[in-house]
Amino acid sequence: MSENKSFDELLLPVRNDIDRIDKELLKLFTERMQCAERVAEIKRKAGIPVLNAAREQVILDRVKKEAGEYGDSAVALYSAIMSISRARQHNMLKSGGVLRDLEQNSPKTLKADPRVICQGAAGAFSHSAALRLFPGQKPIFLPGFRDVFEAVHNGAGDYGVVPVENSDAGSVSEVYDLIMKHRMFIVGAADIPVRHCLCRAKGTGAVKKVLSKHEALVQCSAYLAAHDIETEAYSNTAAAAKFIAETRLEGVGAVCSAQAAEEYGLEVIAADIQNTDNNCTRFIVISREAVLPEDAEKISLCFSLPHTPGSLCHTLERFALLGLNLTKIESRPIPERNFEYDFYLDFTGNVHDVQTLALICALSDEMPRFSFLGNYKES
Ligand SMILES: C=C(O[C@@H]1C=C(C(=O)O)C=C[C@H]1O)C(=O)O
């Protein structure tokens, strides 16, 4: 430090330079955005899409080369600038017309007195979820998730209640795949505490083997291993309970809820055998048509991304720019396309918010595959 000058005095001329440069940058940024607007007008007339990935790559290659040692940083900066430029163009062109129609025209409340479909049997955790989500309704039970989706798809039921994720065992991938297969909307969600019991038919002997849904067996793995109990996957916890009550197989028990044990008259040998105390499963409500309440708080999307460096990062950045909080991201392989993935994304937000709608519409226009899955309340 020079003898008489303070740090502030030393910084002042450099900061003056930075301020001058920022002023120029801002002027050039504004000019660049105006060019993007002119481009949008031409695209409107020509009916061509906003995104031109090849043109963007040419720009990125050029700035990387020209920026020398700052090449990678320049690429990050220009990716952000072009993303903002595209967002402006999407807003001008009102991209994502289908989604805009959906936002305008979808009902805002769930049907009154709906036919609700669940997987399994009375006493299943889906049953508790259905009662929480639709108090007073008597759900119809079908054997598999596929049956629930088909029933909602063909109109035999209004809504289906299915699990998507457990706090211990993770996602129920079959349900994610069925959502995409049947192009269902998510119109509600509830987190249900899950406590498992080890049960047997009254009067049968020591349990050597248990039947239950695969996810329930995973959630009780520590207890079952410690007690040397063999496991066999069954379609559903309550269905397993019903089966052992009816067959009274010697040495065979079930892992199910206390309600299922009571429903089928089973003896509870041990309660609370799940690995974690706060074991909890998220259930969603599936529907053929979207329902978009004014006060919906969670949005779910599914999309694939181009195989280019940073494509996921730049997509997530756009949520961050709007202050939207991502609550879940999950990837699933796309059937028949080796090692290509769909991303499932949940974030807190409402599609009736203009900026959030604009972002979703822009993404729907730019992504190779894109589905808006729903915007719903969580109970
Ligand atoms: C401006 C255009 O639209 C988009 C934005 C670009 C940019 O900001 O440079 C480049 C390509 C397009 O994805 C264009 O097509 O030139």
Walk me through the topology.
Layout (H helix, E strand, L loop, with lengths): L6 H40 L6 H14 L4 H23 L3 H9 L10 E4 L5 H9 L6 E3 L2 H9 L5 E8 L3 E2 L1 H10 L2 E9 L3 E5 L7 E5 H6 L1 H6 L3 E5 L2 H11 L4 E5 L1 H6 L2 E5 L9 E8 L10 E7 L6 H11 L4 E8 L7 E8 L5 H13 L3 E7 L3
Parallel strand pairs: 1-2, 1-3, 7-8, 7-9
Antiparallel strand pairs: 3-4, 3-11, 5-11, 6-9, 6-10, 12-14, 12-15, 13-14
Ligand ISJ binds next to helix 1, helix 2 and helix 3.
Short description:
The chain is of the alpha/beta class. The chain has helices at residues 7-46, 53-66, 71-93, 97-105, 125-133, 145-153, 173-182, 214-219, 221-226, 237-247, 258-263, 311-321, 354-366, and strands at 116-119, 140-142, 159-166, 170-171, 185-193, 197-201, 209-213, 230-234, 252-256, 266-270, 280-287, 298-304, 326-333, 341-348, 370-376. The chain has 4 domains: 7-93, Chorismate mutase (Chorismate Mutase Domain, subunit A, Up-down Bundle), CATH 1.20.59; 116-194 and 280-287, 3-Layer(aba) Sandwich (D-Maltodextrin-Binding Protein, domain 2); 197-270, Periplasmic binding protein-like II (D-Maltodextrin-Binding Protein, domain 2, 3-Layer(aba) Sandwich); 294-376, Alpha-Beta Plaits (2-Layer Sandwich).
